[in-house]
Design a protein that fits this description.
heterodimer; A: mainly beta; 4-stranded antiparallel sheet; about 55% strand; B: mainly beta; 7-stranded mixed sheet; globular
Chain lengths: ~120, ~120
Amino acid sequence: AQKVTQAQTEISVVEKEDVTLDCVYETRDTTYYLFWYKQPPSGELVFLIRRNSFDEQNEISGRYSWNFQKSTSSFNFTITASQVVDSAVYFCALSDITGANSKLTFGKGITLSVRP
Amino acid sequence: GAGVSQTPSNKVTEKGKYVELRCDPISGHTALYWYRQSLGQGPEFLIYFQGTGAADDSGLPNDRFFAVRPEGSVSTLKIQRTERGDSAVYLCASSLNGGFGNTIYFGEGSWLTVV
């Protein structure tokens, strides 16, 4: 069965610090997709990134970067020079062939607080 | 519409009452999902529609929960005989065609409180 573990529950940093959010996943499938979503206080889940299991290339988008390592089943997310607006709950999610239909399995989320 | 729209944004109801939550997906998206998010948890899958039909309802917790999508666009999640344990945020989402790997886009959710 699919499982996503986000061991960190709450992280607090001071503005401009770098912060890494960890995500470890389990799946029996060799074909799968990984996602990160951000949930600000408004409640809406905002899509950040999608990565498929055949593409281990790391990605950078502005202050955000993602490190995908199949060898350790991890898909970690780093925010560089954090800002107060980054404060939110961040979810890692998995979609695999067994689940199909793009059905997502989510981790419990990491609450990030960025203090001015 | 531009994004997934859900109404009501907040609903307080008494135990035992019937509740309907509505979702309007992104225009052109044929796949629609309902998830439930309890406090401090990640969203959990309830049901998936492809067009008008419920293709996967394996996440519905019991027969008090039911959802419809009669015209393949707007969907309604219906909860009968509500219980306090039903209190949660109910998130609706849509994707282009439900294909494997599609990105799923979420609405802001309907916060349900059963008192």
